[in-house]
Design a protein that fits this description.
This protein is 31% helix and 21% strand. By secondary structure, the protein is an alpha/beta fold. It has an eight-stranded parallel beta sheet, with helices on both faces.
């Protein structure tokens, strides 16, 4: 899979961390924020700017190894479709952060926090489960990620790569799964 759309169930912090974790696990990848109303991802530019001015050749391929983030900037996915498709063609891996449980440009990877009892809603499909520190074994069919360590969270939120993170390594299996559109 070269591009995946990631959606998280009801967790603001996880909706920021999950796409970045998936991109870091891929190596050189671009995170494109398709959510104009969600928590903002920090990036050097924005999808809205690329829609207004058109992408340059340098935008359409990586300029350095490692992950990059393209913030939303207030544009809807429909309006940005040609730019998003061009970016998917040019980058080795692309992670699309979606505000909804639908993958318009790439297969959807739903992410659910594992919560105890009535707080947990088990989906009826294969997904990614994020451990939260609450003991529960109610995961359905899917990939279960360990809790990220505080240092990993700080690194990702500050824009630096975590040195050794089992949480990031666990995201690699998400790229290997045959997700369907």
């Amino acid at each position: 899979m070269k591009a995946l759309t990631i959606w998280t169930k009801g967790d603001g912090l996880l909706s920021v961390l999950a796409p970045i974790g998936l991109a870091v696990a891929a190596g050189t990848a671009l995170v494109i924020d398709l959510d104009p109303d969600g928590p903002s991802l920090r990036g050097a530019g924005s999808l809205a700017e690329l829609v207004r001015s058109g992408p340059r050749r340098d935008d359409l391929q990586p300029q350095a190894a490692g992950p990059a983030v393209l913030a939303n900037g207030g544009v809807e996915a429909e309006e940005a479709a040609p730019v998003v498709q061009a970016l998917i063609r040019g980058w080795p891996f692309v992670v699309l952060r979606s505000p909804c449980d639908a993958g318009r440009f790439a297969p959807i990877v739903p992410v659910y926090p594992l919560l105890p009892g009535a707080l947990f809603s088990s989906p009826d499909r294969f997904c990614v489960y994020q451990r939260t520190g609450f003991e529960t074994d109610r995961a359905g069919d899917g990939i279960v990620l360990p809790c990220p360590r505080p240092g990993t969270i700080r690194s990702l939120l500050s824009g630096t790569l975590p040195v050794r993170s089992r949480w990031v390594r666990a995201w690699r299996s998400v790229w290997e799964h045959p997700w369907r559109s």
